[in-house]
Design brief:
Blueprint: H1 4-9, H2 23-33, H3 41-48, H4 52-79
The protein binds zinc ion.
């Protein structure tokens, strides 16, 4: 987490909060517009350049956060 938008997105990774220049926001946006099975190497290269491995890790972290959010929402729905 590196900015207020990322903090706000913890409970809703697909929320449309975005800060220009934040690597974590960039990774979250990439997570939203791609599927886990997509080849995102070129996008990572363009967006993160030499830091592409860090970008890939941030995308993985946001995907995990997104899955957890979806599971929690489904569980909450099942409890009603
Ligand atoms: Zn951010």
């Amino acid at each position: 987490m590196t900015c207020q938008q990322c903090a706000d997105a913890q409970d809703n990774p697909r929320g449309d909060w975005f800060a220009v220049g934040c690597d974590s926001c960039t990774a979250r946006a990439l997570m939203v517009v791609t599927c886990p099975e997509d080849d995102i190497d070129r996008a990572l290269q363009k967006l993160f350049g030499r830091s592409r491995e860090r970008g890939a890790e941030l995308v993985r972290q946001w995907r995990a956060r997104d899955r957890a959010h979806i599971a929690a929402a489904a569980a909450a729905k099942g409890r009603r």
